[in-house]
Amino acid sequence: MPAPRKTNTGSNTSTWTGMVPVGDTALAVTDTGGPGIPVIYLNGHMASQRSWRRTIAELGPGWRHISYDMRGRGRSQRSADYSFETNLGDVDIVLAARGVQRALVVGWSYGAFVAAHWASRNPDRTVGAVLVEGAQPYDWIDEIDIEQMRKLWKRLNFLMVLLRPTGLAPRMTAEQMADSNIEAGEIARERELGPVLDNITVPTRYVNASGSSLGSKGDGQELIRASLDRVVERNPNIEIHAKVRSSHGSILRKDFRTIAQAIRAVAAGDRNQPGPSTR
Q: What is the side-by-side strand order in the sheet with 38-42?
């Protein structure tokens, strides 16, 4: 296992990078350190922590940025367990390893589901949540052919193998990727996700994209996003911060400034600690 590494950030703190052991695997973690509000970033289904670099740069050194690669993604090691509950528990493992008791959670796509569940279950440990293009309660899993989805992942497996050395694809089998996607669809059901969102008691902001995403058809993605109207009506702690023009896949690249604004807005709504310094 590689030794932890510190990198000079040009401020009074150093960035820590290293591997955090958990169960049968180890997670690649980056922690900028410092006295600012801790923000933990949760990635999309096939993404790595590199996805957040623009948002982190936009917020600047006044915050403590903690990012990591989920199991089998990026530089993290493979695992026999890629279940949602395991990924949710890994948030606690990473925060404990870095000595963080309370954090602002930010998630994109699959990571938004993880962030929503974590905020709902841990209100005393959550500054707030920013949910980017995910955690939208909709029964889309009932509208697709499960066997066709499994066949699609098998067809994509060759491409995934080619991309793995670049860190742009998870080191998971086609079956594991399909199972994870199917489980995400089940978690997204209104009857499953609705109560989770209704239970959130900390400031929470959504940043939604426009148009379609990989695998969506017609206006299906917009119907999924529209489900949030009922969520914000029921829970005053949740707001839609913005709907941007970029797509599901490009939102972190093109609208990182809007995401950073949402993070600042959530932090400003936290009454338990002063706001961070900003550039």
A: 5-8, 14-22, 25-31, 64-68, 38-42, 103-108, 126-132, 204-208, 238-243
List of residues 6+ apart from 195 with CB closer than 8 A = none
Per-residue pLDDT tens digits for 111-148: 999 999 999 999 999 999 999 999 999 998 888 888 88
Cβ-based neighbour number of residue 3 at 10 Å: 7
Tokens of 72: 């089998």
Output the CA torsion sign for 93, 98, 99, 104.
Answer: negative
pTM greater than 0.85 (yes/no): yes
How many CA within 13 A on the CB side of residue 57? 9
* Alpha helices (runs of H) in the chain, residue ranges in sequence order: 53-59, 84-97, 110-121, 146-163, 174-187, 190-198, 220-226, 228-234, 251-254, 256-268
How, if at all, do strands 238-243 and 14-22 pair? unpaired
